[in-house]
Amino acid sequence: MTTQQTITRRxxxxxxxxxxxxxxxxxPRLDRAHMVELVRQCAHLHSVGLDVIVCTSGAIxxxxxxxxxxxxxxxxxxKQLFAAVGQSRLMLAWERxxxxxxxxxGQILLTRADVENRQRFLNARDTMQALLEQxxxxxxxxxxxxxxxxxxxxxxxNLSALVALLAEADLLLLLTDQPGLFTADPxxxxxxxxxxxxxxxxxxxxxxxxxxASGLGVGGMATKLQAAxxxxxxxxxxxxxxxxxxxxxxxxxxxxxxxxxxxALETPLASRxxxxxxxxxxxxxxxxxxxxxxxxxxxxxxxxxxxxTSVDGAFERGxxxxxxxxxxxxxxxxxxxxxxxxxxxxxGRHSDEISLxxxxxxxxxxxxxxxxxxx
Length: 375
Ligand code: GLU
What we know:
It is a single chain. The protein has 375 residues and is of the alpha/beta class. The protein is built from 15 helices and 12 strands. It has 2 domains: 4-274, Carbamate kinase (3-Layer(aba) Sandwich); 281-374, PUA domain (Archaeosine Trna-guanine Transglycosylase, Chain: A, domain 4). It starts with a helix and ends with a strand. Residues 19-20, 57-60, 83, 141-142, 144, 155-156, 217-219 line the site of glutamic acid.
């Protein structure tokens, strides 16, 4: 089997999280030579048709470097100052490196608020999707310059897990300065062994991960464990390993056992569907005609505005709603792509007319089939 086949068989969409320690190699500066190396591997995955999303740290480190390491008090606003200066430089570095391979990049800066609010979650998801559809590599970081304590994710480990969830990635690589998770701290205990696979995240493991933080970055093993737990529940395999090991990204994607692996607990699609069922009770209902009822129940189609005959209740884009037939029978549950006011205006109309009727459009469907669970 060719390398290309081994690579594309396993995964479809990969989030590569690069910690500050990987990008600086433990120095106070971005190590562009190593960044080229990482981009080369990402570009290879991209060229065989995989979607790659980069979750990058290093804004603060880059800002410090640019300003000549000024001796400023260690306050939140000074960190934000460094991030504001460094983010654009960091992005420019990624842009130039991916350009070597003729790959475009798009910057997405997120805060916790962007993923917690469902409407904003959908917006971020749509942007991510739009970039990937055009084969543009999203480069994500926390919006450090504006994020305050309440809306900050805080560390890029947890941010990358949210990105994996948002993008429905099937692999999250947490690349750091350690080869993986060990049975004890390898710097202190010569008998420490690498844990190749984790199926259960329990207290013992949490305690093991507890203390180990590394120099410039924010997250230690504890945040990586939290991130791994979120991502594997969202349907992604997770691997924690050293980002400076040769060819590490390609080796993992081709199935080599590298670092510590956390197998996904389910598929991204199953995870989304479970969320729809377990989430808040439907905020409203869409009543559909016989044609639409058949299309969604028998053909697995999305629900188009054309098939909707009436809109009940008050709900926003991103809320869970129920889909009923004319007799009031609940056919499905799903996530509305439009709020109730918009749907009341576009119901019964062809999807081509949405922009004209509303002045904007979030796409042709009222409820996407991936967001629909038949009952
Ligand atoms: N967002 C921070 C930065 O770009 C890094 C946070 C982290 O490394 O977890 O500097």
